[in-house]
Specification:
The complex is a heterodimer of chains A (about 375) and B (about 325). Chain A has about 375 residues and is mainly α. Chain A has helices spanning about 10-15, 20-25, 30-50, 50-55, 60-90, 100-110, 115-130, 135, 145-150, 170-205, 210-225, 225-235, 240-250, 255-265, 270-280, 285-290, 295-320, 330-340, 345-375. The chains are: A mainly alpha (about 375), B alpha/beta (about 325). Chains A and B meet through helix 15 of A and helix 2, helix 4 and helix 7 of B.
């Protein structure tokens, strides 16, 4: 495209004040639509739930307080990013000749895989909803008022997911439950993957005695019966969200550590690692700059799979009554509660169960898509 | 004297036994001089280079000797100082440029890394300098290549980038381990020209490793002929090519096909093969393949004797 048949710069900058419009005018349809949709969605929440937002903004409790700030920050970040990106594009003047990095190639391959892209959308939307739960939820998820009148109401426009035996709105509980379940899954995996990656990279890179000692420790940790460990710890301490995240994260890093070690063992024999040593880089930089980025692809794939697994694990623990305790809602304890009422009120277990299935399925599909996109050995003629 | 390797011995301790990759090797490189290590594959040439940089991979170990660089024994210095020397004062160029570059970073990033590490540049200064250096090594359109990933470049351009990385901190010594072996002939000549140009510009010495005698003749001042990790003959490039004295050097030169030779007569090369480094023949390791060797060669490895002022040869049958 020649620069003289572009809209004027001033118009573009003005347009980019509404996130996404600048990109659309520049002809970058995909980014434009995404930014616009995100900004409109957030703005819509702000306008339609203005009262709830105001309440959340000045709430003394952490969750709504955070949620209100998240909404504002997300809106601002979308606008700023959009403006910045349009200016960058204009500065480059259409010369986007940055090399095709392995990351960009993978992105292109990923984008061609429709199922994985849909899964990614579902996951992003789920997390947005979870983050905004205190603003979106129409009712207080824990308040019990007139339980005799509102007990077990079937799904309706007022109570989208119906109500439970205490007359609580299940839609609100499911939204709050999403923030509990999903944040546990994500944060536990972050902990596990961070520990596992660094641990495995150090073991594989230094090898010898260090490797031996570190991997024997891994064997010990793997040999520990995680489930009973959790049962025991839950008996001693009170299970809250932070505790569950730590328990799940600290018991599941071993798999990552093992396969990162394997990757590193083969990577460190490659000539560019010798090259990195020959230019005098210290071990720390070689591990973090040259080894770990090259070992990242399988980590991403397994991390996506692990998040789904963690969400399921949390639900399982809560279902058994050793995870998140009622009245704090999580999808697991909501299903557990619905189990007793399955014949009278199917909706109590049905909706959280469905959300759980959709979430885990999405993570599995995302993981599949990432593997296909990142593994150069997969045949991708169909997509590229 | 810039580099002086004295009685270097690097052994690999394998389960099956000890492999003597480099054994009692001594040589020196003067400032701005080009010395080439020549020999068949498996003669320990690369291990010499890695030993100088203290990069010998496990289970290899330097068991003896000194590597004096400007009078400082690199085998004794602390790791901190060693990192300054690597990349800062001694640069290393690899045989396979494609494998020597990190696939997840741009060429520019990898040059900047060295500039920031060894020349203390800021990110911005390093970027400007890196583009200049890329242009200096003869890469066309350096601003664009700066942002390219290794696999987007041809082998010749990759090797130019590797050379830029190895020389950007203005080292005193450049070790080039078969820098042209993976490239086709026209590119080979360009890379050799580039090395000579950079040698003049930065006043570097070059320690070249090659088995390509054409390359050796084109760039060296002196040549060290190696066999089974030992020095066989050390002489100026003129002497080696005009009048090789050691039977192994003669064999090597005799293996090179010449233009104008009859099609029917194939060069025979040196009969036999390089022996297993774990089961070296007693005495002179070359005697089983040697045309002039006899029983007297089987007791002990011959000492590196002086033939003239600048010429050493390890052979009982050759004397001044």
């Amino acid at each position: 495209m020649k620069s003289n048949d572009r809209p004027s710069k001033r118009l573009l900058l003005a347009g980019s004040l509404i996130p996404g419009v600048g990109h659309l005018l520049l002809g970058k349809r995909r980014q434009g639509v995404h930014l616009l949709a995100l900004a409109l969605g957030l703005a819509l929440v702000l306008v339609l739930r203005w009262d709830a937002f105001g309440e959340a903004f000045s709430s003394p409790r952490l969750a709504p307080w955070l949620s209100a700030r998240f909404l504002l920050t997300a809106l601002a970040a979308t606008a700023v990013f959009s403006l910045y990106d349009v200016r960058r594009s204009l500065a480059l003047d259409g010369d986007d000749s940055t090399g095709r990095s392995p990351f960009q190639i993978a992105k292109r391959r990923f984008a061609a895989n429709q199922l994985a892209v849909i899964a990614l959308y579902v996951i992003v939307i789920m997390y947005l909803i979870a983050a905004l739960a205190p603003i979106l939820a129409p009712f207080d998820p824990t308040a019990i008022e007139n339980p005799t009148e509102t007990q077990y109401l079937a799904p309706s426009w007022q109570h989208l997911f119906g109500t439970d035996e205490f007359g609580r709105d299940l839609f609100s509980r499911a939204l709050y439950g999403a923030s509990v379940s999903l944040s546990i899954g994500l944060l536990a995996v972050l902990i596990a993957v961070t520990i596992g990656t660094v641990y495995g990279a150090v073991a594989g890179y230094f090898g010898g005695l260090i490797d031996n000692v570190l991997m024997r420790i891994v064997d010990v940790v793997i040999a520990f019966p995680t489930f009973f460990l959790m049962l025991m710890l839950v008996g001693i301490f009170e299970a809250n969200i932070v505790f569950l995240i730590l328990i799940l994260g600290l018991t599941s890093w071993t798999g990552t550590a093992r396969f990162i070690r394997g990757e590193v063992l083969s990577l460190k024999e490659r000539e560019f690692i010798e090259g990195a040593r020959s230019i005098g880089l210290p071990h720390r930089l070689i591990i973090f700059r040259h080894i770990i980025p090259n070992a990242m692809a399988p980590v991403l794939v397994s991390a996506a799979l692990m998040v789904g697994g963690m969400v399921a694990a949390e639900a399982g623990l809560s279902f058994l009554g050793i995870g998140i305790r009622p009245p704090t809602p999580s999808w697991g304890n909501m299903i557990s509660q619905g189990q007793d009422a399955l014949l009278v009120a199917w909706w109590v277990a049905f909706f959280p169960g469905t959300l759980l299935v959709i979430t885990i399925l999405s993570f599995n599909l995302l993981s599949d898509g990432l593997r296909d996109a990142l593994d150069p050995k997969t045949l991708m003629r169909k997509y590229v | 004297m810039l580099l002086s390797v004295e009685n270097l011995a690097t052994y690999f301790f394998l389960d099956e036994g000890t492999l003597k990759a480099v054994d009692d090797l001594s040589f020196a490189v003067e400032e701005q001089e080009t010395v080439t290590l020549v020999g068949e594959s498996g003669c320990g040439k690369t291990i010499v280079a890695l030993s100088i940089m203290s990069l010998v991979p496990s289970p290899g170990r330097i068991v003896e000797g000194r590597v004096l660089f400007n009078g400082e024994d690199l085998l004794q210095v602390n790791p901190e100082r060693l990192r300054q020397v690597r990349g800062g004062e001694i640069g290393l160029v690899f045989q396979e440029p494609g494998a020597a570059l990190n696939p997840v970073f741009t060429i520019g990033y990898q040059i900047c890394e060295v500039l920031r590490l060894h020349r203390g540049m800021t990110k911005h200064e390093a970027e400007t300098e890196a583009v200049r250096l890329l242009g200096d090594t003869g890469i066309p359109d350096p601003e664009k290549r700066f942002r390219a990933y290794p696999f987007e470049l041809s082998g010749g351009m990759q090797q130019r980038a590797v050379i830029a990385i190895a020389t950007c901190a203005h080292p005193k010594l450049l070790i080039a381990d078969e820098p042209t072996t993976a490239l086709d002939v026209t590119i080979q000549a360009e890379i050799l020209d580039l090395l000579r140009y950079l040698q003049d510009q930065y006043r570097m010495a070059i320690l070249m490793i090659s088995h390509d005698l054409g390359v050796v003749a084109g760039i060296s001042d002196r040549v060290l002929v190696m066999y089974t990790g030992k020095a066989m003959e050390l002489a100026s490039v003129r002497d080696i090519f005009n009048e090789p004295r050691h039977p192994y050097s003669q064999g090597l030169l005799g293996s090179v096909p010449r233009l104008g030779e009859g099609k029917g007569e194939l060069r025979r090369g040196i009969p036999g093969a390089v022996p297993d480094l774990m089961q070296l023949p007693a005495g002179c390791t070359f005697h089983p393949r040697c045309p002039i060797g006899d029983a007297s060669c089987r007791s002990e490895f011959p000492p590196l004797g002086s033939l003239s002022d600048d010429r050493l040869c390890a052979c009982y049958k050759v004397s001044a």
